[in-house]
Amino acid sequence: MSEDIGLWGVPLAILGGAIRVSTPFIFVSTGECLTERSGRINLGLEGTLVFGAMSGYAVAYHTGSPWLGTLAAAFAGLLFGLLHGVLCSLPRVNDIAIGIALMIFGTGLAFFFGKPYVQPVAPHLPAIPLGFWSPLPQVQAALNVNVLFLAGIALAFATAWMLKNTRIGLTIRVAGDSADAARALGIDVNRVRLWSTAAGGALAGIGGAYLSLYYPGSWNEGISSGQGLMAVALVIFARWNPVNCLYASLLFGGAGALGPALQSVGITSGYYLFYAAPYVLTLGFLVATSSRTRALPSAPGELSIIK
Amino acid sequence: MSMQHAERTASAAVRAGFLSEATARRIETAILPLAALLAGMIAFSIFLAFLGKPPLDFYLLVYKAGFGTAFSWTNTLARAAPLLLAALCVALPARLGLVIIGGEGAIVLGGVAAGAVATLMPGLPGPAGILLMALAGALVGGLWIGGVGALRHLRGVNETIASLLMAYVAIALMNHLVEGLLRDPASLNKPSTAPLPAAWRIGEIPGLGVHWGLAVGILGCILSWVLIERTTWGFAARIVGGNLRAARIQGLPAGRLVIGFTALGGAFAGLAGMFEVAAVHGSANASLAAGYGYTGILIAFLARHNGLAIVPAAILLAGLEASSGLIQRRMALPDATVLVLEGMVFIAILLSDTFQDRLKFLSFLERRQK
């Protein structure tokens, strides 16, 4: 049956879009949150995301298992994170600039090795049909929830808990708030930051695998258009709190779904402007939450972008 | 560096009758990027060798396609023109300590502005049209990147993230305008603005076969160098970049410098887009987003944000990118090969910062005196 639900399709499509589009944001921003809480910023996650998408797709294609693909993407992301962490451990090497270089390097490597995988079809990650109760196909489509989305929610809460309540979390926070205090406590600041960046990279890799293995669900060179970077900006907006990162990701997913949702009900004139909505929104949030005169509340003290 | 130290070094060098501190520094500043370039190329050679591709063939092809013949030089220099201007968009703000990576947005919108001028008043004579396009391109580019500087100064918004986000917005804006308001109904397959009147097209530098954008780009680099190294504004900018608090205490207008230098960089990038439209494509369309803004980042870092050093760096990268087609055909490598090499060189360049002031062989004279 195809009942016409008219304009109700728009909020429904935005809800569905928020669930589908937000997942990579959740993984990348939670990972970046971890990295930034340790006192470093990794702008290279855009490159990690793209490389994760490529490697995940390639491995899933060869092995037939999307989960192995996701694992491979996480491993690739881990390596990129380690590279960032090692390079930034050297004196006078700027973490923002290294991030830009890794953005170019990661994207380049992904395009280089990904050329043969543009055509083949890899198996997708499974989804759970939570909309089974509804007779409306639109509702069913909107509530078709991927497993990684649920894992991302759990991850955000677990990371927040870990940062607050565990010894590892405390170590990361001390390294991020005051390198001197951390050294006085006998903490190897560079090592803490190295592994925080590596973990952040691994999560970004998973976010990439979601892009190529579920939604949009194919590998091509335009798979990410700044999602990795937006996720980094989102961490600032979320005030370095993983649970806030989750909420912000959902908001961004909804904004990203605005264009296609309006298109589905026949509004096509400003397509490209709606396409720009998430970027404008990110920028708006950055402007609203930044301040010239006072340090941002709850920002890690060692973070170079707020100094 | 303290005055005492400088004096001690200077006298040591005078006694040794050899290197002065300034010369030693200058040599080091030149050697480090070259060594980093070489290291990046070696790392890339290893990468190629692992894939069973002969690295030597690769570099020979780059030389052949980028610099081997008069024709390849023409091609390389035509590509260098927008890269020079794009690199200035990174280098000028960098002297104030700002990392702007969204020059692509200013290039794209500068080109659209030029196309819009041609669409709105095609009746103007050639020289007036060209001047107006240049002004429009520079103005839009300057406002776009100057806006990033203003956000940084007034609201403390991180300029790196903001500029890249705005580059995505700029490309969406270009698509919106080129496929809507400014679209030439005759452009069917590739939505474009109306073709420029023939008299508005910018020609070639006589005897070189390269459009005038190259001359403007080189002039821009020289003027930027003079501005930074030889004027009080440049001096003030370097102080702001070195220590913002000290600059404020000195009463330097940090805000005006930040907005002014970012706007100037953006104006150069906007000019790059205008030349792409007026000298290369003949109308504004999606070809404007060709990635020049991103290559410009690497060029500026390779040149250590020095205007004069940008010229050879831009020509080198232009030659490399010009050789991409031949490399794809001859070596069966994907088009992203050049991007991988650029990434490796970029990492090596940043890594070389860690060796600044630590090259032992340059300070051996001083040490021997002690």
Automatic annotation (TrEMBL), chain A:
Entry's Gene Ontology molecular function annotations: transmembrane transporter activity
Residues in the signal sequence: none
UniProt main location, coarse: membrane
Alphabetized InterPro entries for the sequence: ABC_transp_permease (IPR001851)
Source organism of this protein record: Xaviernesmea rhizosphaerae
Topology of the protein relative to the lipid bilayer: Multi-pass membrane protein
UniProt-recorded name of the protein: ABC transporter permease
TM ranges: 6-29, 41-61, 67-89, 96-114, 141-163, 192-213, 219-238, 245-263, 269-288
UniProt keywords, alphabetically: Cell membrane, Membrane, Transmembrane, Transmembrane helix
Localization terms from the record: Cell membrane
Record bears the keyword Transmembrane helix: yes
GO cellular component term of the entry, any: plasma membrane
TrEMBL record, chain B:
GO molecular function: transmembrane transporter activity
Record's bilayer topology term: Multi-pass membrane protein
UniProt main location, coarse: membrane
InterPro entries with a match to the protein in the record: ABC_transp_permease
Transmembrane segments: 30-51, 71-94, 106-124, 130-149, 161-178, 210-228, 257-280, 292-320, 332-351
GO cellular component assignments: plasma membrane
Keywords of the record: Cell membrane, Membrane, Transmembrane, Transmembrane helix
Locations listed in the record: Cell membrane
Protein name in the entry: ABC transporter permease
Organism of provenance: Xaviernesmea rhizosphaerae
